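Q: What structure does this chain adopt?
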Amino acid sequence: MGEALGRVLVVDDDEVIRQLIAVNLTLEGFEVATATDGQDCLDRVLDVMPDVVTLDVMMPHLDGWETATRLRTDEATTHIKVLLITARAQEDDRKRGLGLGVDAYLTKPFDPAELIRIVRDLATQRAGR
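A:
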């Protein structure tokens, strides 16, 4: 098997959704790690060093908004591409995410092909390919 397309950290408190995203990305050729909430993401991100973080917004302990803010403000993680995946489909939510510096926004329910396309695009940007 060839080199992975990139490394992705999938963050969602819903195990079914987390596994759905992870399986789709793994089958596409990405190396995938998972985290159960924002704090778990921040605890693991430097060990995983992903090209892309997929991040749910509504999670216990530390929500996606605050997690994205911390990823963007930490010099060690500011370069990582962030994709918010959320049921929050309002334009204000999308603007808030983009205002925080996230790279892409995908609403649930999502098309797995669209998820793969966005993550592939972000990983390619990250790698400078």
